Amino acid sequence: MNALTLPDIAAQASRQALPLDWVGMCGIALPILIDGQRLTATADAGVSLDDGTARGIHMSRLYLALEMLDQQPLTPALLRTVLQRFLDSHEGLSNNAYLRIHTDLLLKRSALVSPLAGWKGYPVSIEARLEKQMFHVELKIDVTYSSTCPCSAALARQLIQQQFLEDFGNTPLQHEDVLTWLGSANGIVATPHSQRSNAQLLIELDGDQPSLPITELIDNVEAALGTAVQTAVKRADEQAFALANGQNLMFCEDAARRLNLALKRSDAVKAFHLKVIHAGSLHAHDAVAESRWTRNPA
After folding, report:
1. Cα separation values, 61 from 57, 65, 82, 248, Å
2. Left (φ > 0), alpha (ψ -120 to 50) or beta: where does 174 sit?
3. How is residue 70 annotated by DSSP?
4. Where are the domains of the chain?
5. pLDDT per residue over 11-69, tens digit each?
6. Which overall architecture, per CATH, does domain 22-149+193-294 show?
7. Over the stretch 11-21, which tens digit does the pLDDT of each residue have?
């Protein structure tokens, strides 16, 4: 008996001739290699369907091309190669190719003072596009930090001054009396409010970069803010964290400006859109600031 040829429905003509912008798959599980770490990731892979008369694309060809990602470190060059394979396998059907990768990058972070250390996760998305042979690669990175309100810090200091006057008035003071008072409950009668905050970074990279500078960008962002959230801590680390917050008072506007300047200093960054969110602790709403920048061509 002759073997029957399996039907290829995707190769059949569409009943409605109409091109489509994006066709593919979302949520494909795969491992990737970034900065020496093998990470669990999900990928969204697709191409444009420019031949409006075609019924569909060959999704299995996209899936098979993704196998390249678990064999070598993830770089802009590798992303471009995968996208080109998407197009080569859909010659005559597609002009544009797209790939989005979502993962959590784990970085070992040392405590501020003690010898402790712990792992911290950073949500990262990598989006690559090959549109009319023009290559684009973008990073989405979330960085969590602490922010202490300058206004509430000033109000707290004023209340501490008032409490000092109430407790001592015109009483002659000795150094030991002041030191004891500062260590008492009255010495910290009011505290400024702080909140867990989040920086959402959308960064367009120069496509010719040899690597994805994800760790470098995160390090620069945390250094600019000065109050990255911690992992394992002892009391000495908690005290150092309180000191860091006191020395880095910031509104959301301050944080956005710090990050703007920090990202501009990276030669790998072509453009960015950043958004900082200071979750309300005084209010039921959040404080938000955004900033955009594009490098002028030389």
Report:
1. 9, 6, 11, 51
2. beta
3. G
4. 22-149+193-294
5. 666 667 899 999 999 999 999 999 889 999 999 999 999 999 998 999 999 999 999 99
6. Roll (3.10)
7. 666 667 899 99
